[in-house]
Amino acid sequence: MECHSEFVEALGNNAIPYRTVARWVAKFQLGRVSTSEEQRSGRPLSVRIDVARAIIEQLMDEDRRWKLRELKRTSGI
To answer: pLDDT tens digits, residue range 15-66?
Structure first.
């Protein structure tokens, strides 16, 4: 798939998997017109992404040596 090859060329090992690109292509071929997230069922997010990002950035600015478990416990996210 040409578009995946371009991702790999640009991003190397950080490129998204081929199967993900193939899934996106299939959805757009079936008429999807937007890249924004679709409504999902299930429990809604308890924290907005921008708020969570601000909390984590503030904690990381104070001390870059945080471990993931400590960040989770301290931030409540």
So the answer is: 889 999 899 889 888 888 887 777 777 776 666 788 888 888 888 888 888 8
Give the separation between CA 66 and CA 72, rounded to whole angstroms.
Answer: 10
* C-alpha span between 16 and 21 (Å, rounded): 7
What CA–CA distance (Å, rounded) separates 71 from 55?
A: 10
pTM: 0.44
Q: At residue 32, what are phi and psi to the nearest 5 degrees? A: -60, 140
What letter would DSSP give residue 64?
T
Instruction: Report CA-CA distances (Å) from 17 to 2, 12, 33, 55.
Output: 13, 11, 21, 30
| Sign of the dihedral through C-alpha 50, 56, 60, 64 | negative
Copy the structure tokens of residue 5: 């090859």
Here the tokens at position 46 are: 């308890």
